[in-house]
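4.2 Preliminary Data

To establish feasibility before requesting continued support, the project team ran the inverse folding procedure on a target of 545 residues. The structure was first converted into the token representation described in Section 3, and no sequence information of any kind was made available to the design step. The complete token record follows.
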């Protein structure tokens, strides 16, 4: 009898390993197809924010590799070299994780993309594991693929962003809250507090987790868990951890709000966010998720533990919708990333329940058809997405850093192009010999989001600024179909009659456009004191020399 039990246990473990291996293989296959289509691995940086995320992690990793001293002074010194560092606008947790990897292996685009892929894969496996508790394993296996195929997920793989990390941490926190609601124990409660803190300190929309416990309590009738002294103590501990950061950076973070709060914004945002969910899993897929929630709610008294588990996913989905429809940061599809794991889990339940109501000969084909409909948005996105633009700035950066002596370069182009050159130079400049200046900061005045934009001088002042600063070279990035901003036009006029000579013209890959490199005929030393004044960084912060 004992031998039979052991064989059964081994067989069960084998099936479990096969399930997880198949799920991981499916997610990786979809990710590789996404990379092949987007060319993201080879194209490098181009998004407005992704270079900032990379450089923030680089700043943390650099400090970990060279510990000691004032970390703020360290960050300021790096900002003088690489003026896309923006810790403060975004919180530091994920940068600490990624920066630790950079400290060990060195900052690089492939390493950052590998971390991105790991986060995506673990989140998809989590969705499959959650679905496996509620539906047959073959169907749960499909859940991993459905999540990996959603357009938001595919785009998050192509760009270095924080949304997938927030989605993964939020789902883990929701699971910890479910465990606490089931047991009332300290350990899952403290785990929830820790995961919630990590989520909130990864990105501001992590605060949506504050809505999960009350929504879950309302759905399950477990209000006592919510107001228990230990829950209040855990909430106080959570606020003590995350509160100081947000108190110090509230003014910086609020610069990123693009709307005013109010009923009009909430209505507009809610409609858009529901539309984003439908666009990622198809409108029928969204209806399947609603049906799954309704089916489980009707059966809640038959199996209360099952309902409590389903309810935490409903709570996470609703919390994301409510939070993102109230807080007026922006209306964009990627902010719905934390809702995708619960959306997929609920849609699978709905499809399974509906298929079970049909005659046996129809249930299998109907289930397959429903899954295909849910996958259609991702399949279409995968088939039609244009390749990611490559500004060819990696080649330019190789001619800038490392350098034998300090050198200052100006980059002119979109925010994404500016950040791309800065990040590419940073990866190649361990000696910190290169300084990059953004033309958008030298020639204009505006806030963090580019509002109240205006030129701060005439054409004659441009060359005077370049001379006084000691700018050794200039890189301009022009995209076909994208009109240059007034300061870029002003710079082009100034360069036409200047001593700067064109040394390279690099056609962009994957999209029409050209990157042009200008150099002074003779070496020039940068005025670092003036650069620090323009950048808002005191000269005494330059601690690397």
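Position-by-position output of the design step:
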């Amino acid at each position: 009898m004992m031998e039979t039990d052991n064989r059964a246990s081994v067989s069960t473990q084998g099936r479990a390993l096969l399930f997880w291996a198949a799920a991981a293989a499916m997610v990786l296959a979809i990710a590789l197809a996404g990379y092949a289509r987007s060319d993201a691995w080879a194209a490098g940086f181009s998004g407005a924010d992704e270079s900032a995320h990379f450089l923030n992690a680089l700043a943390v990793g650099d400090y970990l590799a060279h510990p000691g001293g004032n970390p703020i002074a360290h960050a300021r010194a790096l900002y003088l070299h690489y003026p896309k560092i923006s810790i403060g606008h975004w919180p530091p947790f994920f940068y600490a994780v990624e920066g630790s990897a950079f400290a060990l292996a060195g900052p690089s685009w492939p390493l950052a993309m590998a971390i991105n892929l790991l986060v995506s894969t673990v989140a998809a496996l989590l969705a499959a594991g959650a679905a496996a508790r509620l539906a047959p394993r073959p169907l749960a296996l499909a859940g991993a693929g459905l999540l990996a195929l959603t357009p938001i997920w595919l785009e998050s793989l192509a760009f270095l962003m924080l949304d997938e990390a927030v989605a993964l941490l939020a789902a883990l926190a929701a699971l910890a809250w479910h465990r606490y609601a089931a047991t009332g124990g300290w350990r899952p409660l403290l785990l929830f507090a820790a995961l919630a803190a990590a989520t909130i300190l990864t990105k501001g929309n992590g605060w949506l987790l504050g809505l999960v416990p009350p929504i879950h309590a309302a759905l399950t009738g477990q209000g006592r868990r919510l107001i228990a002294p230990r829950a209040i103590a855990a909430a106080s501990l959570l606020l003590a951890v995350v509160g100081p950061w947000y108190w110090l950076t509230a003014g910086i973070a609020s610069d990123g709000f693009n709307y005013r709060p109010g009923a009009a914004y909430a209505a507009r945002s809610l409609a858009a966010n529901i539309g984003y969910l439908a666009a990622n899993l198809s409108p029928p897929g969204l209806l399947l998720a609603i049906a799954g929630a309704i089916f489980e709610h009707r059966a809640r008294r038959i199996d209360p533990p099952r309902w409590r588990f389903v309810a935490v996913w409903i709570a996470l989905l609703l919390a994301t919708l409510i939070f993102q429809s109230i807080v007026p940061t922006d209306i964009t599809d990627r902010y719905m990333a934390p809702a995708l794991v619960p959306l997929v889990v609920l849609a699978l339940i709905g499809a399974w329940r509906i298929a079970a109501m049909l005659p046996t000969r129809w249930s299998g084909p109907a289930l397959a058809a429903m899954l295909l409909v849910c996958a259609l948005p991702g399949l279409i996105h995968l088939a039609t997405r244009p390749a990611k633009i490559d500004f060819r700035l990696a080649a330019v950066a190789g001619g800038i850093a490392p350098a034998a002596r300090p050198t200052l370069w100006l980059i002119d182009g979109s925010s994404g192009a500016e950040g791309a050159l800065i990040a590419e130079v940073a990866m190649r400049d361990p000696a910190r010999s290169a300084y990059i200046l953004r033309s958008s900061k030298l020639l204009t005045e505006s806030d963090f989001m580019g509002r109240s934009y205006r030129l701060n001088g005439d054409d004659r002042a441009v060359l005077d600024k370049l001379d006084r600063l000691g700018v050794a070279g200039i890189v301009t990035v022009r995209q076909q179909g994208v009109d240059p901003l007034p300061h870029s036009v002003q710079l082009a006029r100034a360069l036409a009659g200047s001593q700067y000579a064109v040394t390279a013209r690099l056609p962009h890959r994957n999209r029409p456009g050209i990157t042009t490199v200008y150099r002074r005929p003779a070496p020039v030393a940068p005025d670092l004191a003036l650069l620090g004044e323009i950048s808002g960084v005191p000269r005494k912060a330059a601690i690397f020399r």
